[in-house]
Amino acid sequence: MLALLEELADSASGRSEYADVRHVRSRAERVSTRNGRVEAAAHDEEEGIGVRVRVRGAWGFAAAAGSDRSAGEDALERALAAATAMPRGSAAQLAPEAPVRGRHVAPIGEDPFAVSLDDKLAVLLAAEAGLRGDPRVAVSSAHFLAFREERAFASTDGALLEQVTTDCGGGIAAVATGDGETQMRSYPASFRGDVAQAGYEHFRGLDLVGHSARVADEAVALLSAPRCPAARTTVVLDGGQVALQLHESVGHAVELDRVLGTETSYAGTSFLSPADLGSRRYGSTAMSVTADATTPGGLGSFGWDDEGVPAQAVPIVREGVLRGFLSSRESAGQVGLERSGGCMRAAGFARQPLVRMTNLHLEPGDAGTLEDLIAATDDGVYLETNRSWSIDDRRLHFQFATEVAWEIKGGRLGRMLRNPSYAGVSPEFWGGLDAVCSEPAWRLWGVINCGKGEPGQMMRVSHGTAPARFRDVQVGVA
Amino acid sequence: MAGAGGEVPLDVAVRALEAVPAGVDGAQVTASRERSLVQRFARSEPTQATSVDDLSISVCVVRDGRTGSSATNRLDAESLAACARSAAAAAEAAARSGAPAAFPGFAKAAAARAHHGYDLDTARLDPRVGGEALSTAFARAAALGAEAHGVWTAAEVQTAIASSSGLATVDRVTDALMKVTATAPDGRSGLATRAAVATRELDAAEIAHRAAEKATFPGVPVRLPPGEYPVVLEPPAVADLVDWLGRLAFSGLAYAEDRSALCGRLGTRVASPAINLSDSPRYRGTLPRAFDAEGVPKAPLPLIQDGVAHRVVHDTRSSALLGTTSTGHALAAGGAGLPPAPMNLVLVGGGAADELELCAGIERGLYVTRLWYTNPVRPRETLLTGVTRDGTFLIEDGRITRPLVDMRMTDSVLGILGRVQALGGRSVLVGDDHWYGRRFASGVVCPPLRAGAVRFTA
Description:
A: alpha+beta, B: PmbA/TldD fold
């Protein structure tokens, strides 16, 4: 495959300013059960060649199914035709990058595709049975997910790369209904659970069966819990909600293509500008954020991005001050960075790479465990497990809801509260961050549905977070 | 027309169906070929051009009332056979699991009606047509001192289904969309968009001009405090709300599982008497489709008439839960993982000439072009939250006077539809511009409307 890609890159080199060629083979397995029945048992695969060329500053990309020479040549010709038909594009130079040759295979334990479907269904059905003890549970569901991507890459700069990644995970959820009310609880995260760059051992380690009774009990209890009242108060977020908060109000805001306005029409822009680098206060001194494509187990970990730039750790925020952006070779070149941050990623073979999050982490603090943090909080609300999210196109004004909350009174958790929500403005909210739990409470949370681009691309990313406390937050907004 | 590598989708579907192992109770193969072109631009420069040509198959096998599925875009004989074996093995594992049966089997073959959803010129996917549209948009935006951002796209999708119940059918559709977000030097933005079956319906000059007019509307944006305000919603904002309503309230699965806002409310008034909503796959101006993902022919279905909720939509699996039949709204064969949803929603218009006439009845309120990042807060209440964007204005004494700082709406869709006072007479197709996964163009045909009160929370 590498030889073919190299030939295609050579063929493109005299007809474009730059070109790269990818072959991607993707596999996915999705198994789910719902209300005691098998909802889905699906295995998907696809492969193809994607060619990206730059002609007179305009990009053209074409994808063709298959892995043979004719598919590659067809894609190359269509990419050139697409680029040539565009008006003249940007004159910005790509940030320099020394071409690399190599192979990277992300380590995993047990191959999830080698485990029998019978075993997976047995786990899901057992976990789901544990959700259905109370007749008020109207919907019980359990999910298993596995993904593998084999990527080969060649560029006119001389890069020649191969890499293989495997992701695996799952989760459970219970929906309880009664008296016109509907409430949901999930484990370990909502929207089909938690996925990591790992083997079957990650799914097994989630112990879905062991958590099912608690999840169902909490869903039913929420039906009669008091509503979360409207107030400005102290908020403690669980690590999963911190992850989504980080994703939406920091991760997308520091994508340099958005900052430069090239995603205005769809994903939107950013409240940040290139001039903010090094001086803009993003949050309190407790806030340090890193984009790290080398984190073991992270869904955004790889050997090289889809421009052949090696994986790296990029400081984004240090002690509350903006220190970096997520960048590509083109966007880095446009703002004068020495090199790309290595954040160009494409979903499958039929999409061109975009600036995407890799693994974006909130660095751990020194607040101890979640229990320690609650104990150190006199009055407030503890919110857990994302239920809903929305943020404006500049990534400034947000509103989130979680599945459940508990009052915090005198350093202890009190009543369970239903329909919790909170809202804020990104830098003000992060400015209220005054405590992050310590390293042992820090873990990765997988996000498998990060959407961006036209045509749309879903990307898998991870966020390392620990529970954290934010002061003076408006809750009970919806 | 031959598919990728010279393949014809229906031929591939039939070959894959023949490769399904003996002993299963039923099988359906869907072969889908996407040829698409997406040309993007920002700051009046081209940014990306994506051309896709892909033919993939999906095999769904039934065994003892359980389904298994497998998909591939490798079309050689061994790959098709492996895909069929994989689907059969999954169905057999599901049957062995001891879980109760969930799928009653695929519907018998039935003829689908022809539609107007294919245009030969559009199917040529000439990138020069898009390139010229971009140049036109750049010039029109510049004429008003604005920059153009957006997308021009066209696609041809052929979908063939072959099944063990005797189905062998093909649907060919094309779709086209142009969207321009114009930005003014002060950072304000304006949106205009158009979707259709054919690229010739996309008037780049008119779209860019409307977008630029909004971005450069005179005045400094003013801020309104949170509260309830009367609003005029342009079709993109209306379509967003109605599309969510279709997924949340009219899903037969949500209804069967006691999660829908319509549980216990079918046959009752759920919206203003002015609201008439249907799923109409051959309505003029929509993006037609001959059959659903299970090969069930598409047919018009009234959802709300004169404000009264009438029906929810079903696929085979959700209909079995209620002992009824599919309404032709499957999004995946066997219902695996994707609930049924209406994909050709039509909201019938009213008597107002245009948006300006709708504004005439408002003393102080909001004019909203579109909503952004709308997501459900509490699905059973159809409670959504989202932010206004790309053209939000203050209405004073019946006319648009100044730009507004964008606001967050948090309100129930059914609640808003219950407060509708008037609808425009001219409906347009608002195309869904997400295109995640394989191309599946859809959209909502709707007019602008005026609602007496909408809740803004920030």
